[in-house]
Specification:
The complex is a heterodimer of chains A (360) and B (180). Chain A is built from 13 helices and 15 strands. Chain A is α/β, with parallel strands linked by helices and 360 residues long. Chain A has two domains: 216 residues, 3-Layer(aba) Sandwich (Rossmann fold); 120 residues, Rossmann fold (3-Layer(aba) Sandwich). In chain A, strands 2, 3, 4, 5, 6, 7, 8 and 13 form an eight-stranded mixed beta sheet that branches. In chain A, helix 1 packs parallel to helix 7 and helix 11 packs across helix 12. The model of chain A has no long low-confidence stretch (mean pLDDT 95). Chain B is globular. In chain B, helix 1 packs across helix 5. By secondary structure, chain B is α/β, with parallel strands linked by helices. Chain B has one domain: Pyruvate-ferredoxin oxidoreductase, PFOR, domain III (Pyruvate-ferredoxin Oxidoreductase, domain 3, 3-Layer(aba) Sandwich). In chain B, 44% of the residues are buried. Classes of the chains: A alpha/beta (360), B alpha/beta (180).
Chain lengths: 360, 180
């Protein structure tokens, strides 16, 4: 039987990174993800791997860019307000096509905010705050087991597509412990010998840079990037459906918060009201096509998020206004309990019924 | 089966130690468990609590408004969490550091002088293990066979310490039986 351990989300992420061959970590401490760096500072030194506690988050991600260009498997981790500092370099990493894994264990913003758990960085992660046309793959785990599994996937996708990958985790999940099955890395190694900068002995020299004064070349480069994004959208879009097949009411939620909504689905199903949950596992690429198909048969959608409704616009874009969308949001803090969510949803159902009656 | 536990006290009382031992025991029984901690910046003296959910099914309720069991190792935590206990739930309180006062009449109270009992055992640090023993008895959810393995997960190879803690655990376990 495979080894099982009770791990915090943060430690599960760090353990998974070591398991799939991460050999360089650069980071700067910030609550609620400090355990990642703390754990790796010991484990990576024991294994003679590269660990640097950088002088700032800006330094950390730029060190990551440098190491990634030599073909290293690189990870950096931080939290919301400090991930904001890394946005410029993420744009560079996307243009340079460097495989970087960035863990964002979200805390409350905007600005300095505080250490309360939040999902406030949906926009920051999926849209990005760097300049120019680029995309980063964004994975969203909802359990500690998924923190572990998706970290391995993040390294694989980063190497496969030569693109930055963000693992977007709530502070709640980073700090919560659950049993984790410590699976071996299921993904194949990706050959990077064609592009990494490992010394030009016996081969022509190479360079990796985003500066391109030639207009045509720059245009081609960006178009190539978007061809790659298209492939990512076709191959890597991932989601979870819970009681969706015959749902009249569809809940959309992501991350750990989606779990409380499963309890909500169970409650309403017992009462004969068909409620289902649609949870994107990849926030970019967003599973728009599947959501559009499912929503054809639902009366309305309720978007539930621990922010002021950032994913709601992606849900609206996917459904193109074909179904009404309600939302239940709370910007920061403790996630709403199933009991509270049930009360709020009952209110929405009542209002929808009134609307329906008025139309007749 | 779905049970919730809150363990609370002050920094240094071993709240998170018994919390993670309890969570590990549930894991060793192949149950689903979530373990959340909450603590201040202080190493000692600050308020500390943890929440454990255990279920035989996937846990889809990460935030609960009410709990089935509360362990409160001091007055402040008893005051803070009494209202979070479900009707018919149980409160285990350390009467060495909290007044014996039954504010609610819809819950079961077990007051025990845990710190004094631990001091009698020779180490006041065992207060937490005695409390866990009482919980083990009354919750009926803890497999006594797994106790040693659970302690080993946290205390690793400190054999002597594990033995002492298990002695304290058994003292708590038998405490309720004797009808005190």
């Amino acid at each position: 039987m495979k080894e099982k351990a009770l791990l915090k989300g943060n430690i599960a992420i760090a353990t998974a990174a070591l398991n799939c061959g991460c050999n360089c970590y650069f980071g700067y401490p910030i609550t609620p993800q400090t355990e990642i760096g703390e754990f790796l500072s010991v484990e990576m030194q024991n294994r003679n791997l590269g660990f640097v506690c950088a002088e700032s988050e800006i330094a950390a991600i730029n060190m990551a860019l440098g190491a990634a260009s030599t073909g290293a498997k690189v990870m950096t981790s931080s939290s919301s307000c400090a991930v904001a500092l890394m946005q410029e370099s993420l744009s560079y990493a996307a243009s340079d096509e460097l495989p970087i894994v960035l863990i964002n264990v979200m805390r409350a913003g905007p600005g300095q905010g505080y250490i309360y758990s939040s999902q406030g960085d949906y926009n920051q992660a999926t849209i990005g705050g760097g300049n120019g046309d680029y995309k980063t793959i964004v994975l969203s785990p909802s359990s500690v087991q998924e923190c572990y599994d998706m970290t391995q996937k993040a390294f694989y996708l980063a190497q496969k597509y030569r693109n930055p990958v963000i693992l977007l985790v709530e502070g709640l999940l980073g700090q919560m412990a659950e049993p984790v099955i410590l699976n071996e890395n299921p993904y194949p190694e990706i050959d990077n010998s064609s592009w990494k900068l490992d010394g030009a002995k016996n081969r022509p020299s190479r360079k990796i840079h985003s500066l391109e004064p030639n207009q045509i070349k720059l245009c081609n480069h960006i178009q190539d990037l978007f061809k790659k994004y298209k492939t990512i959208e076709q191959n890597e879009t991932d989601w979870e459906e819970y009681c969706c097949d015959d749902a009249d009411i569809l809940i959309t939620a992501f991350g750990a918060y989606a779990r409380n909504t499963k309890a909500v689905c169970d409650y309403f199903r017992k009462k004969g009201i068909k409620v289902g949950l649609f949870r994107p596992k990849t926030l970019y690429p967003f599973p728009s096509k599947r959501l559009a198909t499912i929503s054809k048969n639902v009366h309305f959608i309720i978007d539930i998020e621990m922010n002021c409704g950032q994913m709601e616009k992606d849900v609206a874009l996917a459904t193109l206004g074909s179904v009404p969308i309600w939302n239940i949001t709370k910007p920061v803090g403790d996630i709403l309990s199933p009991e509270t969510l049930i009360k709020k949803i009952e209110d929405i159902i009542e209002q929808e019924e009134k609307k329906y009656a008025n139309n007749i | 089966m779905n049970k919730n536990f809150i363990i609370s006290g002050s920094g240094g009382q071993g709240i998170l130690s018994i919390g993670s031992i309890l969570a590990n025991i549930f894991m060793l029984e192949d149950l689903f468990v979530t373990y959340c901690t909450c603590y201040g910046a202080e190493m000692r003296g600050g308020a500390v609590n943890c929440e454990i959910n255990v279920s035989d099914k996937e846990i889809n309720s990460l935030k609960n408004e009410k709990t089935d069991f509360l362990i409160a190792l001091n007055q402040a935590s008893l005051n803070k969490f009494t209202s979070k206990v479900k009707e018919g739930g149980t409160i285990i309180a350390n009467s060495s550091l909290a007044k014996i006062e039954k504010i609610r009449n819809d819950v079961k109270y077990i007051f025990a002088p845990l710190s004094e009992e631990a001091a009698k055992l020779g180490n006041i640090k065992m207060t937490n293990s005695i409390a866990l023993g009482i919980l083990g008895k009354i919750s009926g959810n803890i497999n006594i066979e797994k106790i040693k393995e659970g302690y080993k997960k946290i205390l690793q190879n400190k054999t002597e310490l594990i033995e002492k803690n298990i002695e304290a655990f058994m003292l708590g376990f038998n405490y309720v039986q004797e009808g005190k």
